[in-house]
Amino acid sequence: MVGSSQFCAGAMGDDADISQLTFEQALAELEKIVAELESGQAPLERSIEMYERGARLKGHCEARLEAARLRVEKIVMGPGGQAERVEPAEFS
User: Which residue, 18, 24, 25, is CA-closest to 59?
Assistant: First the structure.
């Protein structure tokens, strides 16, 4: 069922394109890969290729999320209610 793939011909090719994807694009492609793998319709070799690309997409998404997390700052208010400074936000 290779012909029924949801991916365009270049989607499984060179991984240099992954670094150019937005978080949303990478996540959407990852969701398609998961759906196709879960369907069990792909041949073994294609399943392995999709799994490997999915792992790289997952890493890219995690890196994008970490970069976004590091950009978030919290505003520290002074005693008079005025914004005094910004500090990195803590997520724990």
Answer: 18
Helices 44-71 and 23-39: crossing angle in degrees, nearest 10, is: 150
Do the beta carbons of residue 20 and residue 50 sit within 8 Å? no
pLDDT digits (tens, 9 = 90+) for 69-90: 777 767 777 788 887 787 777 7
Sign of the Cα torsion 34, 40, 41, 46 reads positive
Nearest to 46 by CA among 36, 59, 35: 36
Helix (H) or strand (E) holding 27: helix 23-39
pLDDT band at residue 22 under the 50/70/90 scheme? very high
Partners of 87 in the β-ladder: 74
Structure tokens at 28: 């959407």
To the nearest 5 percent, what fractions of the chain are helix, strand and coil?
65, 10, 25
Q: Say how far apart CA 84 and CA 81 lie, in whole Å.
A: 9
